[in-house]
């Protein structure tokens, strides 16, 4: 019974099934993507909501030092990208990390990972749709058209702003003296029509763009590819303008202190920075539509990560060089705000318009990825057959695409941006951890290593991981007083859960050190696993709790439906 939970799919069986499926007319996807298309998809997904929205609050938390957090997170993604590339070159089908886990870690792990990929893509899309709505409304307002506030934001934000405004006014503060977010939220909630006593506040533009993108993805990969390529070129041109023009207004003294809130302030932005990079794995979801997936996917992943990391670092340094980081707190459109600060409203208008374009391309790639993961899970019997249905004319996973639109469009009406970013980031890091771990398990069998056209550069992890564990432990707890304070933290204060999470991380690191020596594990996947796991520890106990309940719901569904319906059963 226990072994059946961890049953695995054979790589040879996956490849033979794929070949058989492609020989069936009308029942397969169309190979239409090359390295450039895949790289542009990666850039579209990575350069999205974060560079136009979340980068502002991240810079407020950590100051200019957030640029180094982008580099650190990119390094973690680079380790992970090697592992994705290794799998993509071995199992070139559309299941992404879900399929990779199925071949290496077993069915129940693959299901939980697929369940979390659902969370990653759906919530990422919701976040991008919300950001798109904000910039679109600002653009429309700039052109002289007013959109009622209650049609442009979520209910929770409006209700919180209304309550905060009432408290402020009761203490004698005028509504005009409050922040822009509170004023807009107050106006939205106060002016909203009521239905059975409930204020109707909903983000209609977010729903409209989701429907439009879902339709584009539904009618074909070629149409989606061409649209995305045009949008990415426009996006890169505008970012070049932002950096090129902004560089002339940078005041170097704004970079001092480099980390005004210390390392804790920098790490406070982990969720936002991780959210920036989660899109790179969307490249692997299109494996069945690539002309040469085993060669092109690894190249595209590396190029996309390199390009986007350079852009994020440059934009962060320009932003914090023009605007002191503490002034960026709560600013939802930091790049436009930056140019308004230096009296360049024309450039600010260009940024607002380009943000709409950039976020459209990000939403397009995310909407493209999730249906293909559902399609693969359905082929394995873990989801109903309807999810693997291929449209006879458009050659796209039709039902899965429609369901993705529903799953994104409805929450986008009512969801809060900050909450969805945090929950999406921890689910993504979990997927990255399992992909890195899956490579380690897969490569324990020498026969599997022969089946891949992409090889991860091998360095024996051996003593390096154990030595790093000892150094990290010493730096964290250098003396008896530190140990005493740490132990006391398990029983007092608000950080008890955080202590337990970090302790678990060090235990896993120690176990991995032992296995690195005994099994001569490869250094890059081990580093990828540890760095992603460390970033997960920085997500906070609340996000861990939500993540646990989400996984628990997935386990219940697995035993209620997927375990019995699995084709491996």
Automatic annotation (TrEMBL):
Q: Which UniProt keywords apply?
A: Membrane, Transmembrane, Transmembrane helix, Transport
State the organism of origin.
Aquirufa avitistagni
Q: What is this protein called?
A: Amino acid permease
Membrane-spanning intervals of the chain:
38-59, 65-85, 195-218, 230-250, 262-280, 301-327, 347-369, 394-414, 420-444, 456-477, 497-515, 522-541, 547-563
Subcellular location(s): the record lists:
Membrane
Membrane topology recorded in Swiss-Prot or TrEMBL:
Multi-pass membrane protein
Question: Boundaries of each Cationic amino acid transporter C-terminal domain copy?
Answer: 523-566
